[in-house]
Design brief:
The complex is a heterodimer.
Chain A lengths: L2 H15 L1 H20 L7 H5 L5 H10 L18 H5 L5 H27 L5 E4 L3 H10 L4 E3 L9 E4 L2 H27 L5 H23 L7 H11 L1 H24 L4
Chain B lengths: L5 E9 L4 E10 L4 E6 L5 H8 L7 E6 L9 H4 L2 E4 L11 H11 L5 H10 L13 H13 L5 E5 L7 H18 L2 E6 L2 H7 L2 E6 L2 E7 H7 E7 L15 E4 L3 E7 L6 H8 L2 E6 L2 H9 L2
Parallel strand pairs in B: 3-7, 3-8, 5-6, 6-7
Antiparallel strand pairs in B: 1-2, 1-4, 8-9, 10-12, 10-13, 11-12
Helix pairs in contact in B: 4-5, 5-6
């Protein structure tokens, strides 16, 4: 059977497989909408703007859509999630099954960043406080059109004004979601055959949440530039390169994941 | 059509422990029904999962229609119908969505058959899988396995959780399918009467080893239980390698064995200087004798 027809049949099936996932997407995404799109007139500093608090749901939705069996008890008698055994024993090509699942996963996780990105076009310019002088200099150097302005609140720290800054930040968020999605897929497919896969996944999942937080805490009150800002400035300075590399990583990851999934036992 | 659409050759498989299936070999003739019997944990499901391409054998080969089931794609897989012992259809999916997937994936999908079975089993297309009774969940899984008109049908405990009428209907549908398209069926079950009713050949699996694999008539004809008593020189302690089971007491020995083996009841009675009486066994007796530890 034609792989395109197979893909769409499986994709549509996955869309209806669990209606609660859609509620979860909205529930998990609501803070993202409120903090980033609706209240874009105030941000405590650039670093807080670059941190994506909701990145954890890439991990959660990833495990639900791509590897639900990881959370299932061994020998469990029901398949409440994605029906992998059922679908694998139908007339399908395994790589196409993975491709359709990955497409569903991307649809779920990109829904909100894309809406935020489109919403940011309404209020594209950004003014944000930046305490670190190093970061201020780096911003002026790497972010096109950025300027320093006196802070109207009377604070000693000036405001950084970035034309199209809000859109740039949403683009940055979209990039973070993309790279996280790629990492999550690679992680799942590497861990899948391991006996203690679920424990390793949780350990890594919580480390990914808390280690950046811990690093950020160390930067509070210091004049050093947090690592996310470094990366953001680099991203804005080399956007085409970032997107080309991300697209290449996306294609390679996808091909490897499909190849790997086809060889995994269930 | 291959001579043996289902072929299992010296297959072993373990999961972090002793082998669940050990050195298993059997084949199923084209257009026949093979009943796979065994106690819980005997390795039936593992064998069926290997044949369905969900897991791989650690040693040996499994072949379905001449192909490795783990390596095949949609083209070859459309000829294999599989029904798991578990409720593997996603819980929140509606019956009509499941059937729609079948229609879209299989060029050979028989809509008339699916609809008639749906009506016959009284399954509402609007219901979600999780709201169906366990029996109806099994019936939907069965429809999904046979509506594509497969050449090979693998059924893992198809009649579990079904009432007697539904069980009979499923068996009739399997027979109809074989009549219509010469499908080859391998099914595992605990219900011996089902096997007696439809199976052409029977395999009994115990602790991952295939104890017998032959036709029902041949099995019933060849396996007997012999009781030896009245020993003139005391009860013998020798082992009988070809026997399936030996039970010894102070005055008698009961042996389950093949009548066509070297050690027949008559030769043993002669050797032990005793009397013997032999009785035929029902399939249930044979199953119990062969499956006991």
């Amino acid at each position: 059977m034609n792989t395109t027809k197979q893909f769409w049949a499986l994709f549509k099936f996955h869309m209806t497989i669990n209606p609660f996932i859609w509620f979860m997407v909205l529930a998990l995404a609501s803070p993202l909408l409120f903090t980033n799109a609706f209240s874009n007139s105030y941000h405590p500093n650039l670093s807080s703007l670059l941190t994506v608090q909701n990145l954890f749901f890439v991990g959660i939705l990833g495990i639900w859509t791509l590897a639900p069996e990881m959370t299932q008890r061994w020998g469990s008698n029901t398949s409440w999630n994605m029906g992998t055994e059922f679908i694998l024993t139908r007339a399908i090509d395994r790589p196409v099954l993975y491709r359709s699942r990955a497409a569903y996963f991307y649809l779920l996780i990109f829904l909100i960043p894309v809406i935020s990105l489109l919403y940011s076009l309404q209020y594209p310019d950004l003014k944000v406080t930046e305490y670190s002088q190093t970061a201020q200099q780096q911003c002026l150097r790497y972010v096109p059109g950025s300027t320093l302005e006196p802070n109207p609140s009377g604070s000693r720290s000036p405001l950084i004004s970035i034309p199209w800054g809000n859109t740039l930040v949403e683009e940055w968020h979209f990039w973070m979601f993309t790279t996280s999605a790629l990492c999550v897929q690679l992680l799942f497919l590497l861990l899948y055959p391991l006996k203690y896969r679920l424990w390793i996944f949780y350990a890594l999942f919580f480390s990914c949440i808390f280690i950046p937080l811990w690093i950020d805490l160390h930067h509070i009150g210091t004049q050093t530039t947090p690592y996310l800002e470094h990366l953001f400035f680099f991203f804005t300075a080399h956007q085409p390169l970032f997107w080309i590399l991300t697209a290449a990583a996306f294609i390679l990851t996808q091909l490897w994941c499909e190849w790997r999934f086809a060889r995994l036992e269930q | 059509m291959n001579e043996s659409p289902i072929l299992v050759q010296t297959v072993s498989r373990s999961f972090d422990g002793p082998p669940v299936v050990h050195d298993l070999s059997f084949s199923v003739k084209a257009g026949s029904i093979y009943g796979f019997l065994g106690r819980n944990g005997s390795g039936k499901t593992t064998t069926l999962r290997m044949l369905a391409g969900l897991i791989k054998p650690q040693t040996g080969n499994v072949r379905i229609l001449g192909n490795d089931p783990f390596a095949i794609g949609a083209e070859e897989r459309q000829w294999i119908g599989y029904m798991s012992e578990k409720a593997v259809i996603p819980a929140y999916t509606k019956v009509h969505s499941v059937l729609k997937l079948g229609r879209e994936l299989y060029p050979t999908w028989d809509n008339t058959l699916a609809d008639s079975l749906l009506a016959k089993y009284d399954l509402s297309p609007k219901k979600r899988f999780m709201t169906l009774s366990q029996g109806n969940q099994r019936l939907l899984s069965f429809i999904m396995a046979i509506a594509p008109r497969p050449k090979v049908l693998l059924l893992d405990e198809p009649a579990a959780n079904l009432d007697v009428v539904a069980r009979r209907e499923i068996l009739d549908d399997i027979l109809d399918l074989i009549r219509d398209c010469g499908c080859t069926v391998l099914f595992s079950t605990h219900i011996l009467s089902d096997v007696e009713r439809v199976a052409d050949e029977i395999g009994i699996l115990a602790k991952g080893n295939l104890r017998v694999s032959e036709t029902l008539d041949s099995l019933k004809d060849s396996i007997r239980q012999a009781r030896f008593f009245g020993f003139k020189n005391g009860t013998p302690t020798e082992d009988i390698p070809e026997s399936f089971r030996i039970v010894r007491s102070k005055t008698e020995i009961t042996v389950t064995l093949r009548t066509n083996s070297h050690a027949t009841p008559e030769t043993l009675a002669q050797r032990w200087s005793c009397q013997q009486e032999t009785r035929a066994l029902s399939l249930e007796d044979i199953f119990v004798e062969l499956s006991r530890n």
